[in-house]
Amino acid sequence: MCPKDNHLQIPDLSSPFRVGGLSFRNRVVLAPMSGVTDLPFRQLAWRFGAGLVVTEMVASRELVGNASESWARLKNSGIDPHMVQLAGREAHWMAEAAKIAAGNGADVIDINMGCPAKKVTGGYSGSALMRDPDHALLLIEATVNAVDVPVTLKMRLGWDENSINAPEIAKRAEEAGVKMITIHGRTRMQFYNGSADWDAIRTVRDVISVPLVANGDVATSADAEEILRRSGADAVMIGRSSQGRPWHAGVLSGAARHPDIAGIQGIVAEHYGMMLEFYGVDIGLRHARKHIAWYLDRFARHLSPPAKAAIMTSTDPKAVLAQTVAAIAAGSGREEEKDAA
Q1: How many other C-beta atoms lie within 10 A of the C-beta of residue 172?
Q2: How does pLDDT run across 5-35, given as a tens digit for each residue?
Q3: Which of 60, 177, 262, 269 matches a 20 to 30 Å C-alpha distance to 7?
Q4: How would you label 230-254 residue by residue, b for 16+ Cβ within 10 Å and e otherwise?
Q5: Which of 115, 40, 37 is nearest to 267 (CA)?
Q6: CB neighbours of 103 closer than 8 A, spacing ≥ 6?
Q7: Which CATH number fits domain 4-253: 3.20.20.70, 3.30.9.10, 3.40.50.1820, 3.40.50.2300?
Q8: Bridge partners of 30?
Q9: Left if phi > 0, otherwise alpha if psi is -120 to 50, otherwise beta: which for 86?
Q10: Residue 305: exposure state from Cβ atoms within 10 A (0-12, 13-18, ≥19)
Q11: Locate the DUS-like FMN-binding domain: which residues (predicted)?
C-alpha cells in the first residue's frame, strides 16, 4: 500500500521512472488516441522527447484474425520501449493478441478499459468493461498470464457517477500482476465533457503501490504540476493537448522547446510526408486532414472558413502542404504562444 504522505513531493517530470523492470526516460506519456497516434505521430512525439508513447488501440480479435489495420497499428520503428494497447471483451482473444504483440516486439502491453466511444463500448469493450469488474479481471488475468512483458491498465473513474469503481478494479488488477495503472479523471458517461476530477484519481493512489499515471485535461506545465499534486500520481499522460503539436509531451518534460514558426512549418511538412509514405498517397491524404486541421486551428486562426475548407478538401498533396505552410507563416504562430507550456 502506498500512503498519501509518500506523495507530497511532486515528482520531477524530467526524471525517469520504472515499470516492471523497464525504465522510461521521463514522466510525460503520450496517450493512445485512435486515429491520432499512428506510427508517424508517435515517431515525431518520441523524437521530441515524450517519455513514453502508446500505439493506437489494437482490437485483439482482429489482430488474431490477421486484419491489416491491426497490424499497421502494431507496427513500431525506432521507439524503445514499444508499448502496445489492446482492446477486447473476451479473455481468450486478449491473451492470444498479447502473445502476438509480444512476439512482434512489444515491450509493454496496455489493456484498454477507458475508451468511451459508442462503437467500442457497444461491443462491451473499453470502458464498458468497468460495468462488470469480475469479467474485466478475467481479461486482465488472461493477458498477464499470456506474456512475460509487463502488462499495464488504462481506465476511467467508473462507468458513471453512481459507479465509481476505479479503486476497486485497480487494487484487484495490481493483485493480478498489472505493473502500472493510468486513470482518466472522468467517467465514461462524461465522455470528454466537464472537467477531469484530479482529486478523485487519488482514491486509486491510496490503494495501489504500482506506478500511477494521471490523465485528463493536462495542457500546460502548471496543469501537470497540479494534477500530480492532487492525484499523488507518478507521471502524467497527455492526449488532446498534443493534437497539432506532436512536440508537446517533450516540451512538458523539459526535453524540448516549443519550436519557432520556421520549426513548426518544417514539422508540418515532415509529418505530412511521413503520413503519405506510411499510408500511401490516397489514404494518407485523407488520414492527414485531421492533423492539418489541428495545425491550422492552432497556428493559422486568422484563416477564413472558405480558405480552410479549400485546404481540407483538396486532393492535391503538394497544394495542401504549400497552402498550409503559407497559412502558418501568415499567422506567425502568435495565437499559439499564449498556449505554449
Answers
A1: 18
A2: 444 589 999 999 999 999 999 999 999 999 9
A3: 177
A4: bbbbbbbbbbebbbbbbbbbbbbbe
A5: 40
A6: none
A7: 3.20.20.70
A8: 53, 238
A9: beta
A10: exposed
A11: 30-302
